[in-house]
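User: Good morning. I'm curious how iron/sulfur cluster would be positioned relative to this chain. Could you predict the structure with it bound?
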Amino acid sequence: MEKIKLPVTGSGYYEIRLESIGGLGANLCGKMLGELGVKYLDLNSASFSSYGSEKTGTPVKGFIRYCDKEKEIRVHSPVTEPNLLVIFHQALLKDGGVWAGCNENTEAIIAIEEGQETDALNVPDPIKACHVVKAQKIAMETHSRINVVMLGAMARVMGFAALEDVNQICADALGKKYPDALKGNLEGIKRGYEEVKRIEGKDSQAVSLKQAPKWGYETAPIGGINPQFGNTVATDLSPSRQGYIPLFIKERCINCGMCDSTCPDMVFQFAPGLYKGKEMMVNQGLDYYHCKGCLRCVEVCPVNALVRGVESEHPGKGYFLPNKDLLHMPDYIKAGPDGYVTSESYLTEKRMEGGEV
Ligand code: SF4
Ligand code: SF4
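Assistant: Good morning! Here's the predicted structure, ligand included:
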């Protein structure tokens, strides 16, 4: 195998950062890139992903490092100054932080939509070059996924990975598990490779490249409280509300408790009450503040009292607004997407009523 000349910079590594959204396949893409380095490029490589809440629609980052075989990878921290920055969805551009650490050695690839004006992309200076690819359109046309289209585009921009090697790593990853999907995915890679194009013109006003974290050693509140909750839907950390939430239809609920014993984040609020004239623990609804949208509760509910809802249809100041289609149902407003029954509010209400808590 001919030795690859890696375009490394100061760190001695070629470093890639994937900026993505849960559900677009960046995690798998990072794994494939890591294996590509070792199996087919005769490099040392390492890759890992970072995702806070496991939630479809929330930010995911992937970090990949390559270096020559003579050098070892002893760094296992996130990539802060990427040689290649890959943005899987244009919604992420709303967050200037995706560009953090870019410099004159950084090439960027942005997934754009069909018909999107590239002038409005707000690519910051300094940056070596910016490329765009209509990843979603290609993925739909080839029956593949955005991650493989981006993989093809990356191979082209990196310049040291041959298309055949990328095809091979895709076949290794998907061929056995999803043989029927392989043809479309290889087509997606090919079109990503062929259709990624460099854009000219930059808007240096757009974003600041280095963003200091809001809270740090010197500025964090005393007492170890984290005021920026990462694992909630009420805190809008997501660049794009594409995820799902469970909707609770209280009148269908038989209070079996399956959701409560399944939910990993103890979102359900049960309290003593009456159900069909019998005293029992009654489901009061969800505390969305802690819900990460995994929908395990929807799967487990035996009577469809929990159904899948589109999160973006229930926005509103950190809480959820009622779904108008369901407003005719009794009790829906009290315990539903707008219910926002927190343990604190529940207990406060009980105390005000003078009841047992
Ligand atoms: S699993 Fe369904 S029926 Fe059972 S308590 Fe939960 S919401 Fe109610
Ligand atoms: S989707 Fe359901 S199971 Fe998952 S965290 Fe939310 S309430 Fe719990």
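The chain has two domains: 14-199, 244-352. Residues 203-211, 229-241, 316-347 have pLDDT under 50 and may be disordered.
Let me know if you'd like a different ligand tried.
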